[in-house]
Amino acid sequence: MNKKSKKRAFLVCTVLCLLYAVVAFRLPEKMSMRRISAEEIAPSKGTLLPVPDADIDRNAPPSQRALSPIPVTPLSAETSDAAMGPDVTQTSVPERESLSADISQSGIEPSLLICIPVVCYALKEGWLDKEGLILGKKDAYNNVTWKKPLEILKDRDEDGIRSILSTIGQKRVLEFMEKEGISPPPGLDPGEIILGKGYRVDAKRLLALYNKYVGAQCDGLFPYSLGQTGIARGKYGFEMTKGEDEINNGGKTAETEWMMPNLANLPMRLAIDRLSVHTTRIKVYGNGHVTGQSPKAFERLKGEQECVIQGRAGNE
Protein backbone atom coordinates (compact mmCIF):
# COMPACT_ATOMS: atom_id res chain seq x y z
CA MET A 1 0.00 0.00 0.00
CA ASN A 2 1.45 3.42 -0.94
CA LYS A 3 1.56 6.49 1.30
CA LYS A 4 -1.45 8.19 -0.34
CA SER A 5 -3.69 5.25 0.34
CA LYS A 6 -2.56 5.10 3.96
CA LYS A 7 -3.42 8.76 4.46
CA ARG A 8 -6.93 8.24 3.08
CA ALA A 9 -7.51 5.24 5.30
CA PHE A 10 -6.34 7.23 8.33
CA LEU A 11 -8.69 10.13 7.55
CA VAL A 12 -11.68 7.79 7.12
CA CYS A 13 -10.97 6.09 10.43
CA THR A 14 -10.61 9.44 12.16
CA VAL A 15 -13.96 10.71 10.82
CA LEU A 16 -15.70 7.51 11.83
CA CYS A 17 -14.28 7.78 15.35
CA LEU A 18 -15.47 11.39 15.67
CA LEU A 19 -18.98 10.50 14.52
CA TYR A 20 -19.11 7.63 16.99
CA ALA A 21 -18.03 9.93 19.82
CA VAL A 22 -20.68 12.53 18.91
CA VAL A 23 -23.43 9.91 18.94
CA ALA A 24 -22.20 8.13 22.06
CA PHE A 25 -21.85 11.26 24.21
CA ARG A 26 -24.96 13.09 22.71
CA LEU A 27 -22.94 16.22 22.15
CA PRO A 28 -25.58 18.08 20.01
CA GLU A 29 -28.13 17.99 22.85
CA LYS A 30 -25.61 19.17 25.43
CA MET A 31 -24.40 22.00 23.22
CA SER A 32 -27.94 23.19 22.22
CA MET A 33 -28.86 26.71 23.32
CA ARG A 34 -32.68 26.14 23.05
CA ARG A 35 -34.60 27.10 26.18
CA ILE A 36 -37.12 24.59 27.41
CA SER A 37 -40.22 26.06 29.01
CA ALA A 38 -41.64 24.34 32.05
CA GLU A 39 -45.06 24.37 30.39
CA GLU A 40 -43.80 22.07 27.62
CA ILE A 41 -42.97 19.35 30.10
CA ALA A 42 -46.27 17.83 31.22
CA PRO A 43 -45.81 15.25 33.94
CA SER A 44 -47.52 11.99 33.22
CA LYS A 45 -49.52 10.04 35.73
CA GLY A 46 -47.15 8.38 38.14
CA THR A 47 -44.25 10.76 37.52
CA LEU A 48 -42.20 11.70 40.57
CA LEU A 49 -42.39 15.45 40.97
CA PRO A 50 -39.73 17.55 42.71
CA VAL A 51 -40.40 18.68 46.27
CA PRO A 52 -41.78 22.23 46.50
CA ASP A 53 -39.42 24.95 47.69
CA ALA A 54 -41.06 25.04 51.10
CA ASP A 55 -40.08 21.42 51.73
CA ILE A 56 -36.51 21.61 50.40
CA ASP A 57 -33.70 21.30 52.88
CA ARG A 58 -31.59 24.36 52.18
CA ASN A 59 -28.58 22.81 53.90
CA ALA A 60 -28.56 19.72 51.68
CA PRO A 61 -26.19 19.53 48.73
CA PRO A 62 -27.65 20.67 45.39
CA SER A 63 -27.46 17.17 44.00
CA GLN A 64 -29.64 15.81 46.80
CA ARG A 65 -32.10 18.69 46.53
CA ALA A 66 -32.64 17.99 42.86
CA LEU A 67 -33.23 14.31 43.37
CA SER A 68 -35.60 14.46 46.37
CA PRO A 69 -38.84 12.93 45.12
CA ILE A 70 -42.32 13.00 46.58
CA PRO A 71 -45.08 10.52 45.81
CA VAL A 72 -47.82 11.73 43.47
CA THR A 73 -51.41 11.04 44.49
CA PRO A 74 -53.56 9.40 41.84
CA LEU A 75 -55.50 11.88 39.74
CA SER A 76 -59.28 11.94 40.08
CA ALA A 77 -61.49 11.48 37.05
CA GLU A 78 -62.16 15.22 36.75
CA THR A 79 -58.49 16.18 37.26
CA SER A 80 -57.42 13.51 34.79
CA ASP A 81 -59.72 14.88 32.12
CA ALA A 82 -58.48 18.42 32.76
CA ALA A 83 -54.83 17.31 32.54
CA MET A 84 -55.45 15.74 29.15
CA GLY A 85 -55.82 19.18 27.63
CA PRO A 86 -58.54 21.06 25.76
CA ASP A 87 -58.33 18.84 22.70
CA VAL A 88 -59.80 15.87 24.58
CA THR A 89 -63.47 16.36 25.40
CA GLN A 90 -65.86 14.04 27.11
CA THR A 91 -69.38 14.21 25.72
CA SER A 92 -72.02 13.29 28.22
CA VAL A 93 -75.11 11.57 26.84
CA PRO A 94 -78.19 13.55 27.91
CA GLU A 95 -80.96 11.63 29.54
CA ARG A 96 -83.82 10.83 27.20
CA GLU A 97 -86.71 13.13 27.74
CA SER A 98 -89.64 11.53 29.45
CA LEU A 99 -91.73 11.42 26.30
CA SER A 100 -93.91 8.43 25.72
CA ALA A 101 -93.37 6.54 22.48
CA ASP A 102 -97.11 6.36 22.14
CA ILE A 103 -98.29 9.44 20.28
CA SER A 104 -101.60 9.20 22.09
CA GLN A 105 -99.98 10.89 25.08
CA SER A 106 -99.20 14.02 23.04
CA GLY A 107 -102.73 14.96 21.98
CA ILE A 108 -106.20 13.86 20.94
CA GLU A 109 -107.67 12.71 17.68
CA PRO A 110 -109.63 15.85 16.76
CA SER A 111 -112.37 14.08 14.80
CA LEU A 112 -115.03 16.54 13.61
CA LEU A 113 -113.82 19.12 16.12
CA ILE A 114 -111.10 20.18 13.67
CA CYS A 115 -113.48 20.99 10.80
CA ILE A 116 -115.25 23.81 12.69
CA PRO A 117 -112.28 26.23 12.75
CA VAL A 118 -111.43 25.19 9.17
CA VAL A 119 -114.94 26.08 7.96
CA CYS A 120 -114.96 29.33 9.96
CA TYR A 121 -111.63 30.32 8.41
CA ALA A 122 -113.00 29.49 4.94
CA LEU A 123 -116.05 31.70 5.59
CA LYS A 124 -113.78 34.52 6.74
CA GLU A 125 -111.61 34.23 3.62
CA GLY A 126 -114.63 34.11 1.32
CA TRP A 127 -114.01 30.56 0.14
CA LEU A 128 -117.48 29.57 1.37
CA ASP A 129 -120.80 31.38 1.40
CA LYS A 130 -122.53 31.15 4.75
CA GLU A 131 -125.94 30.99 3.06
CA GLY A 132 -124.78 28.80 0.17
CA LEU A 133 -126.10 25.27 -0.18
CA ILE A 134 -123.75 22.30 -0.20
CA LEU A 135 -124.48 18.68 -1.00
CA GLY A 136 -124.99 16.66 2.19
CA LYS A 137 -125.63 13.01 2.95
CA LYS A 138 -128.56 11.17 1.42
CA ASP A 139 -131.59 10.40 3.52
CA ALA A 140 -133.19 7.01 4.18
CA TYR A 141 -134.89 7.15 0.78
CA ASN A 142 -131.66 7.88 -1.07
CA ASN A 143 -132.74 11.47 -1.66
CA VAL A 144 -130.07 14.14 -1.98
CA THR A 145 -130.10 16.86 0.67
CA TRP A 146 -128.64 20.36 0.42
CA LYS A 147 -127.53 22.21 3.51
CA LYS A 148 -125.76 25.37 4.58
CA PRO A 149 -122.19 24.97 5.88
CA LEU A 150 -123.11 25.54 9.53
CA GLU A 151 -126.01 23.10 9.25
CA ILE A 152 -123.59 20.44 8.02
CA LEU A 153 -121.39 21.06 11.05
CA LYS A 154 -124.32 20.93 13.43
CA ASP A 155 -125.60 17.65 11.94
CA ARG A 156 -122.08 16.14 12.04
CA ASP A 157 -122.59 15.28 8.39
CA GLU A 158 -119.35 13.67 7.21
CA ASP A 159 -120.53 13.49 3.58
CA GLY A 160 -121.36 17.17 3.73
CA ILE A 161 -117.95 17.97 5.24
CA ARG A 162 -116.28 16.16 2.35
CA SER A 163 -118.35 18.29 0.00
CA ILE A 164 -117.12 21.38 1.86
CA LEU A 165 -113.57 20.15 1.28
CA SER A 166 -114.25 19.94 -2.45
CA THR A 167 -115.66 23.46 -2.42
CA ILE A 168 -112.75 24.95 -0.47
CA GLY A 169 -110.06 22.96 -2.25
CA GLN A 170 -107.71 20.38 -0.78
CA LYS A 171 -104.66 22.61 -1.27
CA ARG A 172 -106.15 25.41 0.85
CA VAL A 173 -106.99 23.04 3.69
CA LEU A 174 -103.49 21.56 3.70
CA GLU A 175 -101.97 25.05 3.67
CA PHE A 176 -104.18 26.03 6.62
CA MET A 177 -103.01 23.00 8.60
CA GLU A 178 -99.37 23.74 7.84
CA LYS A 179 -99.75 27.40 8.81
CA GLU A 180 -101.26 26.44 12.17
CA GLY A 181 -98.52 23.90 12.93
CA ILE A 182 -100.65 20.78 12.47
CA SER A 183 -98.77 17.99 10.72
CA PRO A 184 -100.88 14.98 9.70
CA PRO A 185 -98.93 11.90 8.54
CA PRO A 186 -97.66 12.15 4.94
CA GLY A 187 -99.98 10.55 2.42
CA LEU A 188 -103.08 10.82 4.58
CA ASP A 189 -106.19 11.44 2.50
CA PRO A 190 -107.33 15.11 2.68
CA GLY A 191 -110.85 13.89 3.40
CA GLU A 192 -109.56 12.13 6.51
CA ILE A 193 -107.61 15.24 7.49
CA ILE A 194 -110.64 17.55 7.51
CA LEU A 195 -112.61 14.84 9.34
CA GLY A 196 -109.86 14.70 11.97
CA LYS A 197 -109.07 11.01 11.53
CA GLY A 198 -105.68 9.29 11.57
CA TYR A 199 -103.67 11.94 13.39
CA ARG A 200 -103.56 13.76 16.71
CA VAL A 201 -103.53 17.42 17.75
CA ASP A 202 -102.51 18.98 21.04
CA ALA A 203 -105.63 20.06 22.92
CA LYS A 204 -104.23 23.54 23.62
CA ARG A 205 -103.47 24.06 19.93
CA LEU A 206 -107.00 22.97 19.02
CA LEU A 207 -108.51 25.42 21.50
CA ALA A 208 -106.25 28.15 20.12
CA LEU A 209 -107.77 27.58 16.67
CA TYR A 210 -111.27 28.01 18.11
CA ASN A 211 -110.38 31.21 19.94
CA LYS A 212 -108.69 32.56 16.83
CA TYR A 213 -111.22 31.76 14.11
CA VAL A 214 -114.61 30.72 15.55
CA GLY A 215 -116.78 33.79 16.00
CA ALA A 216 -120.23 34.57 17.31
CA GLN A 217 -121.82 33.41 14.05
CA CYS A 218 -121.18 29.81 15.18
CA ASP A 219 -122.65 30.12 18.67
CA GLY A 220 -125.52 27.86 17.66
CA LEU A 221 -123.10 24.94 17.35
CA PHE A 222 -122.03 24.90 20.98
CA PRO A 223 -121.71 22.99 23.18
CA TYR A 224 -120.34 20.56 20.58
CA SER A 225 -119.72 17.03 21.86
CA LEU A 226 -118.34 13.92 20.21
CA GLY A 227 -118.36 10.83 22.38
CA GLN A 228 -116.25 11.56 25.43
CA THR A 229 -114.72 14.78 24.06
CA GLY A 230 -116.26 18.09 23.17
CA ILE A 231 -115.77 21.85 23.12
CA ALA A 232 -117.87 24.55 24.73
CA ARG A 233 -117.58 28.31 25.00
CA GLY A 234 -116.57 29.25 28.52
CA LYS A 235 -116.11 32.46 30.45
CA TYR A 236 -112.56 32.97 29.20
CA GLY A 237 -112.93 31.45 25.75
CA PHE A 238 -113.35 27.93 24.46
CA GLU A 239 -112.59 24.98 26.70
CA MET A 240 -112.57 21.20 26.42
CA THR A 241 -115.47 19.19 27.81
CA LYS A 242 -115.68 15.49 28.64
CA GLY A 243 -118.96 14.53 27.04
CA GLU A 244 -121.29 15.91 29.71
CA ASP A 245 -123.15 17.84 27.04
CA GLU A 246 -123.71 14.65 25.07
CA ILE A 247 -125.37 13.12 28.13
CA ASN A 248 -127.45 16.25 28.75
CA ASN A 249 -128.71 16.13 25.18
CA GLY A 250 -129.87 12.53 25.57
CA GLY A 251 -133.44 13.64 26.22
CA LYS A 252 -133.53 15.55 22.95
CA THR A 253 -132.18 12.52 21.09
CA ALA A 254 -134.95 10.38 22.52
CA GLU A 255 -137.51 12.86 21.15
CA THR A 256 -136.11 12.90 17.60
CA GLU A 257 -138.68 11.59 15.11
CA TRP A 258 -137.70 9.59 12.05
CA MET A 259 -139.22 7.31 9.43
CA MET A 260 -138.43 3.62 9.09
CA PRO A 261 -136.86 3.11 5.64
CA ASN A 262 -137.96 0.40 3.23
CA LEU A 263 -135.23 -2.23 3.46
CA ALA A 264 -136.83 -4.95 1.33
CA ASN A 265 -134.36 -6.82 -0.93
CA LEU A 266 -131.42 -4.66 0.19
CA PRO A 267 -128.11 -6.36 1.05
CA MET A 268 -127.86 -6.88 4.80
CA ARG A 269 -124.84 -4.58 5.17
CA LEU A 270 -126.55 -1.73 3.33
CA ALA A 271 -129.71 -2.18 5.40
CA ILE A 272 -127.70 -1.93 8.61
CA ASP A 273 -126.04 1.25 7.35
CA ARG A 274 -129.44 2.78 6.61
CA LEU A 275 -130.71 1.97 10.10
CA SER A 276 -127.58 2.96 12.00
CA VAL A 277 -128.22 6.58 11.00
CA HIS A 278 -131.26 6.59 13.28
CA THR A 279 -130.68 3.94 15.95
CA THR A 280 -128.06 1.62 17.39
CA ARG A 281 -130.59 -0.99 18.59
CA ILE A 282 -130.54 -3.29 15.56
CA LYS A 283 -131.11 -7.04 15.60
CA VAL A 284 -130.19 -9.15 12.56
CA TYR A 285 -131.38 -12.66 11.78
CA GLY A 286 -129.94 -14.50 8.81
CA ASN A 287 -127.88 -13.00 6.03
CA GLY A 288 -127.97 -12.23 2.35
CA HIS A 289 -130.75 -9.83 1.32
CA VAL A 290 -133.50 -8.48 3.57
CA THR A 291 -136.79 -10.35 3.40
CA GLY A 292 -138.47 -8.92 6.47
CA GLN A 293 -138.25 -5.94 8.79
CA SER A 294 -139.81 -4.62 11.96
CA PRO A 295 -141.16 -1.96 12.35
CA LYS A 296 -142.77 -1.76 8.93
CA ALA A 297 -141.47 0.48 6.18
CA PHE A 298 -142.45 4.20 6.37
CA GLU A 299 -143.59 3.89 9.98
CA ARG A 300 -142.99 6.98 12.13
CA LEU A 301 -140.63 6.30 15.04
CA LYS A 302 -138.91 8.25 17.81
CA GLY A 303 -135.47 8.01 19.34
CA GLU A 304 -133.54 4.75 19.80
CA GLN A 305 -136.24 2.43 18.51
CA GLU A 306 -135.35 -1.27 18.36
CA CYS A 307 -135.39 -2.59 14.79
CA VAL A 308 -135.28 -6.17 13.53
CA ILE A 309 -134.26 -7.23 10.03
CA GLN A 310 -134.35 -10.73 8.64
CA GLY A 311 -132.42 -12.32 5.80
CA ARG A 312 -133.06 -15.34 3.62
CA ALA A 313 -131.11 -17.67 5.88
CA GLY A 314 -133.31 -16.65 8.76
CA ASN A 315 -136.43 -17.87 6.97
CA GLU A 316 -135.16 -21.28 5.99
Question: What attributes characterize this protein structure?
Answer:
3-stranded antiparallel sheet; alpha+beta; 13% strand; Trypsin Inhibitor V, Chain A; Beta-lactamase; 316 residues; 3-stranded mixed sheet
In words, what does this structure look like?
The chain has 316 residues and is an alpha+beta fold. Among the domains are: 106-244, Beta-lactamase; 251-315, Trypsin Inhibitor V, Chain A (2-Layer Sandwich). Helices cover 38% and strands 13% of the residues. The protein has a three-stranded antiparallel beta sheet. Strands 9-12-10 form a three-stranded mixed beta sheet. Strand 6 and strand 7 form a beta hairpin. The chain is elongated and about 145 Å long.
Query: Approximately what portion of the residues adopt beta-strand conformation?
Result: 5-15%
Name the poorly predicted regions: 36-56, 65-105
Task: Just name the CATH architecture of the domain at 106-244.
Answer: 3-Layer(aba) Sandwich
* Sequence of secondary-structure elements: HHEHEHHEEHHHHHEEEHHEHEEEEH
Count of alpha and pi helical runs: 14
Distance between the termini: 137 Å
Indicate the structural class. alpha+beta
What is the CATH domain class of the domain at 106-244? Answer: Alpha Beta
Largest sheet: 3 strands, antiparallel
In order across it, which strands form the biggest sheet? 5-6-7
Binned, the helix content reads 25-40%
Could you say what the CATH topology of the domain at 106-244 is called? Answer: Beta-lactamase
The number of distinct β-strands equals 12
Mean of residue pLDDT values: 75
The coarse overall form would be elongated
